[in-house]
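Morning!

This is the sequence you dropped in the shared folder:
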Amino acid sequence: MAETIKKMAVVEMGLLMNMARSPQHVATFPFLAQLQDVMKGTEAGKCQSCGAAAKARMGAINSVKAAMASMSPEQVQAMKTLLNTQKIRVRYTNGARSVVKDL
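The structure's back. Tokens below.
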């Protein structure tokens, strides 16, 4: 039986973190590699009382989302195939404003 294609996938932190854990996804979308460094700082047992790791993680996630919003049409199609969806919605901040882009 064929798998149903979703109408829209919304890019969230969990999805990006899972994609960054896959060497295949990082090879296809190199901008995901920057998440691997910040994931190391959020492992259990690390000090997080000042929130520096969370700030770094959110900055990297926002940067990855901005990179996704500026992908080439070929990369967008590859991402849609990977996520099994017709559309991708990316929400990120650009300075003080929030940007929503449908790919």
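Headline: The chain is about 50% helix and 20% strand.

More detail when I'm at my desk.
O.
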